[in-house]
Amino acid sequence: VDLYEDFVPWCQRSDIIQHHPDGSFEAELEIGFKFLIESYVSHVVVDKPKLIKTTAKKSTIFEHLINIWEFSPGPTPGTCHVYFLVDFKFQSPLYRQVASMFFKEVVSRLVSSFTDRCRL
């Protein structure tokens, strides 16, 4: 998470702001897209090597945001299958309209940024 700003499109700042005893943590991300710049805090649960789940909390941007990555062994050593789910709704009608216009491009670039990062 601390390195998201280095490779995730539109992420201008990313910080882990609190660690919990159960291994979960709170992360703050600042996202900028053209003239729109916002930040939000997510609760992140990690169950290595199977699952990453993020849920936005205390957000003025999202009515809800949940992001799930599930990993299962692939057909050959060193590979895996990835199940990815993102479900969100912006509070702002303007943001909802912008997101609907660019949704496919945004998802494609986000997934590519993570798969490219995995290849490093």
Can you walk me through this structure?
- One of its GO terms (biological process) is cellular respiration.
- One of its GO terms (molecular function) is ubiquinone binding.
- Required for the function of coenzyme Q in the respiratory chain. May serve as a chaperone or may be involved in the transport of Q6 from its site of synthesis to the catalytic sites of the respiratory complexes.
- With 120 residues, the protein is α+β, with helices and mostly antiparallel strands.
- The chain has one domain (4-118): 2-Layer Sandwich (Alpha-D-Glucose-1,6-Bisphosphate, Chain A, domain 4), CATH 3.30.530.20.
- The protein is 25% helix and 50% strand.
- It has a six-stranded antiparallel beta sheet with strand order 1-2-3-4-5-6.
- Strand 1 and strand 2 (25-33) form a beta hairpin.
- It is globular.
- The two termini are 16 Å apart.
- The model has no long low-confidence stretch (mean pLDDT 90).
